[in-house]
Amino acid sequence: MNLLDFLIAPAHAQAAGAAPAGGGLGMLVMPVALIAIMYFLMIRPQMKRAKEHKAMLDKLSKGDEVITSGGIAGTVTDIGDSFITVEVADGVRLRVQKAAIGNVLPKGTLKSA
């Protein structure tokens, strides 16, 4: 017996045993659980916010006071299919994409600001 065998036990061939019962099922449960957790924590809330944003854009009308995602506040003067005209000051109008509207402000907010 040499010194290396004394420090590290030699590996001996063992008879191949049967696979542990339920090993395949346990391997499938973890990825399914991870996908379910990701759906409820990330995907579902994002879909809900997108649905609320689309509903807000559909209810948008002339005269509404809005703030864009870039922080520009103004009053809606014209609504197209994909663009909205926002008046930010007397005679100053900007055309922005509909999706750029971040929030609809309560009436009279811009007058008090």
Automatic annotation (TrEMBL):
<protein>
    <recommendedName>
        <fullName>Sec translocon accessory complex subunit YajC</fullName>
    </recommendedName>
</protein>
<dbReference type="GO" id="GO:0005886">
    <property type="term" value="C:plasma membrane"/>
</dbReference>
<comment type="similarity">
    <text>Belongs to the YajC family.</text>
</comment>
<keyword id="KW-1133">Transmembrane helix</keyword>
<dbReference type="InterPro" id="IPR003849">
    <property type="entry name" value="Preprotein_translocase_YajC"/>
</dbReference>
<keyword id="KW-1003">Cell membrane</keyword>
<keyword id="KW-0813">Transport</keyword>
<dbReference type="GO" id="GO:0015031">
    <property type="term" value="P:protein transport"/>
</dbReference>
<feature type="transmembrane region" description="Helical">
    <location>
        <begin position="25"/>
        <end position="43"/>
    </location>
</feature>
<keyword id="KW-0812">Transmembrane</keyword>
<keyword id="KW-0811">Translocation</keyword>
<keyword id="KW-0472">Membrane</keyword>
<dbReference type="Pfam" id="PF02699">
    <property type="entry name" value="YajC"/>
</dbReference>
<keyword id="KW-0653">Protein transport</keyword>
